[in-house]
Every structure is written in structure tokens, then in C-alpha cells.
Amino acid sequence: VQLVESGGGLVQPGGSLRLSCAASGFTFNYYPMSWYRQAPGKERELVAAITSGGGSINYADSVKGRFTISRENAKNTVYLQMSGLKPEDTAVYYCYVRYAWRAYWGQGTQVTVSS
User: Fold this and answer.
1) In terms of DSSP bridges, do strands 109-113 and 9-11 run parallel, antiparallel, or are they unpaired?
2) N or C: which terminal CB in the chain sees fewer CB atoms within 10 Å?
3) Radius of gyration, CA atoms only, the chain
4) Percent of the chain with pLDDT over 90
5) Nearest Cα to 97, choosing from 58, 65, 50, 54?
6) To the nearest whole number, what is the mean pLDDT of the chain?
7) Which strand (E) or helix (H) includes residue 111?
8) What band does 56 get if pLDDT is binned at 50, 70 and 90?
9) What are phi and psi of 88, to 5 degrees?
10) d(CA 103, CA 114)
11) CA angle at residue 107 from 13 to 91, to 5 degrees?
């Protein structure tokens, strides 16, 4: 299983970014996918999750109305569209899947929100 995130960077408050996570090594369209983040000195937290077919989605309260998770099963990719970014969104963002009773994480992509 391999998860490769991309799309992070430095953005001003109020700006937008789209993160991508390219998955391989498992049947992508069978599994729910999630995005987590970890800010310096804080625990890793769930940001958003999407079921295998995309029919059910959940968000952390802190990102509701600003972030959108989606997936493109034909491309084995899950996305996180982030808008209205705030300095408190600064973190390393990780893609996650639980497959064969194991947790798999990507390497993470840094998102920094600063003026």
C-alpha cells in the first residue's frame, strides 16, 4: 500500500489549496479514505472522511463549510479542497486508509497559512 500526498504549500489567510492523495497497492474503490492533520505540538486529528463510493462524508467541526473531501475512483485519488484557510489550519496533512486490519499513512504534505 502506498499513499502519496501532494499540493501543500504556503498560502495567505483566506486563500485556497487542493491536496491530492494518489493511492496504490489495494482496491481503492472498496475502501473509505480520510485526511488527517498534525500541527506542531498537537496530536494528529481527523479532518475529513469519505466512504468508498463517496455517499457519506464527515468533517471536523473546525473545517465544516470550508473544506471539501472528494474522490475519483477511476484515478485512485482522494482530494481535499481547502478554502477560507486560517493560520490555525497550518499543519502537516496526511492521507489515511485502513486496509487488511492495518493503518496506512502517506508521508504528509505541509500546509502553512501565513501572511
Assistant:
1) parallel
2) C
3) 13
4) 98
5) 50
6) 97
7) strand 109-113
8) very high
9) -75, -5
10) 32
11) 25
What residue type is assigned to position 72 of the chain? E
Can you read off the three cell numbers belonging to residue 37?
492533520
CA pair distance 4, 90, nearest whole angstrom: 19
CA distance 37 to 89: 9
Position 71 scores a pLDDT of 98
Residue positions counted in the chain: 115
CB atoms within 10 A of CB 5: 22
Give the amino acid at 21.
C
Look at residue 111 in the predicted model and tell me its pLDDT: 98
Give me the DSSP letters along 29-69: GGS-EEEEEE-TTS--EEEEEE-TTS--EEE-TTTTTTEEE
Phi, psi of 56 (to 5 degrees): -135, 130
Q: Cell numbers 486529528 label which residue?
A: 45
Output the nine-digit C-alpha cell for 51: 466512504
Dihedral sign (CA 104, 29, 25, 23): negative
